[in-house]
Amino acid sequence: MSNIAKAEDVVVSYRTTKGSLRALDGADLAVRAGETLAVVGESGSGKSTLGMSFGRVLPGEAKHEAGRIEVDGTDVFAIDAETLRGLRRDKLGFVFQNPMTALDPTMRVGRQVARAMPGRASDAEITALLKRAELSDPARVMRAYPHELSGGMAQRVVIAIAIARGPQLLIADEPTASLDASIREKVMATLARLRDETGASLLVLSHDLRLMARHAGRVAVMYGGRVVEIGASAEVLQRPAHPYTRALLAAASGSERPGERLEPIPGTPPTLAGRCEACAFAPRCAYAQDRCRAQRPEPREVAGRQVTCHFAEDVLADAPISTEAPR
Ligand SMILES: Nc1ncnc2c1ncn2[C@@H]1O[C@H](COP(=O)(O)OP(=O)(O)O)[C@@H](O)[C@H]1O
Ligand SMILES: [Mg+2]
């Protein structure tokens, strides 16, 4: 299967008042043409930094230290500003967590949508695009200002803008996290439907394992700025090969009953100043041995997926997580 985009051994750090913080520590990820690929992991694992790297939309304090990102064969860190603008406009579409920050509060929705569309869009073309994002009253939405819309409607406007030029890759960073629980599923379904309809790929970054299990064909699990496990959702989420995936699943299944608190994974995620020369998860890992604290695990193929763990076979051999895996 061909890839529409890929990250290879990408290192990105942020300048902070406490020195350099390494957010991506050799991240690898290939997005296949036409797939929905979910990137999951706790807050701080590097999901947003990786997502932004694909469009080189990183903030000024971020520094690309090493590695390659390719979108449709173009090395995004090697091109000039003009080429980069063209690539973002023609090949990529972004949907972020908060639609209100993505929209201009002073401009009617119709005009903002028209500006994202090629050529001079007619009102009929604008409403048709809004309709594709499943806005039920597109003529009214077109005339509205962003603050007159609900969060769900505003996110659908952002989705319409993201698909306006038929991108090859849609990058959605926690697209439903700011929305009411009751509409998360619907907005995610719209994104998945549009991906299907347009033949684009959808890279969706989320900490909602349950939602991703329903919509993504493959899932990549991030920890410490690396992808530690990637494979078919059904396999990775039913029978994890990385201890961190296993811990995440156990934590997620604890929240099944309403009112019950999410079981946290003991310990805290790492903050890296430089390259991690061990397994970043070792301090929190139930499977860790001396080797994990001495030797950085490299990605390898185990049971049909890529996994970055010295003891993946042991993890796979263990009994499934007792509580029900997310549906
Ligand atoms: N603008 C920034 N300045 C400094 N550190 C940042 C910035 N953005 C993210 N980080 C740090 O980089 C790491 C990865 O963050 P991020 O990519 O946002 O992860 P995620 O999306 O998985 O929560 C975290 O340690 C985070 O605190
Ligand atoms: Mg994030």
From TrEMBL:
**Which terms does the record give in the GO molecular function aspect?**
ABC-type nickel transporter activity; ATP binding; ATP hydrolysis activity
In terms of domain of life, where is this protein from?
Answer: Bacteria
Location of this chain's protein in the cell: Cell inner membrane
Start and end of every ABC transporter domain?
5-249
Protein's GO biological process:
peptide transport
Q: What EC identifiers does the entry list? A: 7.2.2.11
Q: What class of enzyme is it?
A: translocase
Bilayer topology annotation: Peripheral membrane protein
Q: Keyword Secreted: yes or no? A: no
What keywords are annotated for this sequence in UniProt? Answer: ATP-binding, Cell membrane, Ion transport, Membrane, Nucleotide-binding, Translocase, Transport
Q: Which InterPro entries match?
A: AAA+_ATPase, ABC_Ni/Peptide_Import, ABC_transporter-like_ATP-bd, ABC_transporter-like_CS, Oligopep_ABC_C, P-loop_NTPase
Q: Its GO CC terms?
A: plasma membrane
Catalysed reaction(s) here are: Ni(2+)(out) + ATP + H2O = Ni(2+)(in) + ADP + phosphate + H(+)
Q: Which family does it belong to?
A: Belongs to the ABC transporter superfamily.
NCBIfam families cross-referenced by the UniProt entry: oligo_HPY (TIGR01727)
Whom does it interact with, and what assembly results? The complex is composed of two ATP-binding proteins (NikD and NikE), two transmembrane proteins (NikB and NikC) and a solute-binding protein (NikA).
Question: Which protein is depicted?
Answer: Nickel import system ATP-binding protein NikD
> Which species is the source of this protein?
Roseovarius nanhaiticus
